Amino acid sequence: MSASSRAPFDPYDPLGLDDLLTPEDRAVRDTVRGWAAQRVLPHVAGWYERGELPEIRELARELGGIGALGMQLTGYGCAGASAVQYGLACVELEAADSGIRSLVSVQGSLAMYAIHRFGSAEQKERWLPSMAAGEVIGCFGLTEPDHGSDPAGMRTRAVRDGSDWLLDGRKMWITNGSVAGVAVVWAATDEGVRGFVVPTDTPGFSAPEIRHKWSLRASVTSELVLDGVRLPADAVLPEVTGLRGPLSCLNHARYGIVWGAMGAARACFEAALEYARGREQFGRPIGAFQLTQAKLADMAVELHKGILLAHHLGRRMDAGTLRPEQVSFGKLNNVREAIEICRTARTVLGANGISLEYPVMRHATNLESVLTYEGTVEMHQLVLGKALTGFDAFRG
Questions:
Q1: Among residues 94, 144, 302, 374, which one is catalytic?
Q2: Which of 25, 30, 56, 245 has the smallest count of CB within 10 Å of its CB?
Q3: Start and end of every Acyl-CoA dehydrogenase/oxidase C-terminal domain (predicted)?
């Protein structure tokens, strides 16, 4: 191939990764990107500054309308998209804001996924179509005030009372909690950890919203309070007992983060690149200085390495060969690198980097939450450490 017949170098796709996408992949990406540009980007700085997501129910219905909720699932009104297509959607959503991607991830990869994989036929028919349409928002209750990284220590308990179940306990840091119509709640029972499908209008259930956050401010985060919540026997998820249930859901959600974190990083890189081309100091654009070019080059390398890693894991998921340790590999690398890209971008923008007129500081603070939810850095290091050495260091 002659040099003249090659495509020109694209600063926004330096490795030509778009060549990995099918026309269907691009259509999914472009649909979600267009929706986010119209419905989120004009408003998200204000939502973030005020610490609210005021249009969450309307946004959920719109996301359902474009097929973004539970999009990897099949049947029940779900899109049946590939893992790569779901990942591309996560990139575009998180390029707008991590809170929007969290809304979609919790709805589809946690609450809907749990019901779809472990629920009864009746539970699936009752909840999944309305959740796929965004008419009912779901949440996922696993983390507790005293037990985050160690869910085996959960104190929320379900006991049998005749043919019913009684649930008591607390869950913490629950995305969508106070706006949810249904909660998937995990509780310890005499037979092991079980999942329960809890309509949020059940007496004894409440979800006070958590305020005063400095991260994920354009997101609804709540505590779940369960005081003698009485549920019928058919509220339990019948197809799983033990931590395998919630952990498999978390693995599915972590996969979306592997992609989504690169969306936040991309937004910051592109903001820094545009700024460096236009901002002048000492009589020339700062992008003409070697140190700024070095920062941009390093950001581009890590960003597109992360996207390439996400693509690889997506193909493995579509092939049915993706292992949980590989998801930990992706989550550990991509979120850590995304934060570093955001911080470097902030230095390129100087004082303007802390202004909400630019997306950089908003993404940087959001990623501080993404770094620790769905498994902290330390947990994923230990997952990989165990896989590499054969020794379990979690309790040693």
A1: 374
A2: 30
A3: 242-388
